[in-house]
Amino acid sequence: MARKADPFDIEVTPELIVRAYRAGIFPMSEDAEDEDLFWVSPEWRGIMPLDGFHASKSLRKAMRKSDWDIRVDTDWDGIIEGCATVGEDRSTTWINGTIRGVYGELFRRGVAHTVEVWDGADLVGGLYGLAIGAAFFGESMFHRKTDASKIAMAHLVERLNAGGFKLLDTQFITPHLASLGGIEISRADYEDRLAQALMSDGDWGALDGSA
């Protein structure tokens, strides 16, 4: 179920975005050129069970051999640009100027976060999302080198488990996410899990030994 929102009737603010996620809905746009947003509440919701992440044998091998650096929250602009770039893994993007602006402000407020995969001075993959209560709402990911987005997701799951998070929302399920253990649940099941996750606070910095 989706409802188109007229930006002239409702101002899209960081506060509105947070309220929407807490209510189980999220915004999207038709494409990068359309500044309008619509609200989405899927009948079937994608999640990544935090105790069910699946790293294939080849991914585990790649993680052991990789000398890439994992960083968090250091390059918002690089991550959002990577996620919004049309390439071999996407033919279009829903990340428009409105999304960039309001989520950029959420990043500055410490609500939005990034996981970044660096090969030397090059950002080769990563993801971003919102941490609200003990729920993390994954928004988008990208890769410029094989396995970079999978390694970012593996780090995200490790970080969320360390911080006591209870829910990792992926919105929808793609073959990429399904290969890592992602599943679909009903809207009612999702809303129950979300309500439980919002009753406590996750610690995004626990893996680093800092709040």
CATH superfamily: Leucyl/phenylalanyl-tRNA-protein transferase, C-terminal domain
Number of helices: 7
**CATH structural class:** Alpha Beta
What topology, given as strand order, has the largest sheet? 5-6-7-8-9-4-10
Please tell me the total number of domains: 1
Sketch the topology as an H/E string, one letter per element: EHEEEHEHHEEEHEHEH
Tell me, briefly, the overall form.
Answer: globular
Label the structural class: alpha+beta
Strand residue content: 25-35%
Largest sheet: 7 strands, mixed
- The end-to-end span amounts to 37 Å
Number of strands: 10
In the CATH classification, which architecture applies? Answer: 3-Layer(aba) Sandwich
Mean of pLDDT: 89
The residue fraction in helices comes out at 25-40%
**CATH topology group:** Aminopeptidase
What gyration radius follows from the Cα positions, in whole Å?
16 Å
Name the features.
single chain, 211 residues, alpha+beta, Aminopeptidase, 7-stranded mixed β-sheet, 3-stranded antiparallel β-sheet, 7 helices, 10 strands, 33% helix, disordered N terminus
Write the layout of secondary structure elements.
Blueprint lengths: L1 E4 L8 H9 L3 E3 L8 E4 L3 E4 L9 H9 L3 E4 L3 H9 L12 H12 L3 E8 L2 E11 L2 E9 L4 H15 L4 E5 L3 H5 L3 E4 H11 L14
Parallel strand pairs: 8-9
Antiparallel strand pairs: 1-3, 2-3, 4-9, 4-10, 5-6, 6-7, 7-8
Structure description:
This protein is α+β, with helices and mostly antiparallel strands. The protein has a single domain, classed as Leucyl/phenylalanyl-tRNA-protein transferase, C-terminal domain (Aminopeptidase, 3-Layer(aba) Sandwich). The protein contains 7 helices and 10 strands. The chain has helices at residues 14-22, 57-65, 76-84, 97-108, 148-162, 175-179, 187-197, and strands at 2-5, 26-28, 37-40, 44-47, 69-72, 112-119, 122-132, 135-143, 167-171, 183-186. The strands form 2 sheets. A 7-stranded mixed β-sheet has the order 5-6-7-8-9-4-10, sandwiched between helices. It has a 3-stranded antiparallel β-sheet with strand order 1-3-2. A hairpin with an 8-residue loop joins strand 2 (26-28) and strand 3. The termini are far apart. Residues 1-8 have low confidence and may be disordered.
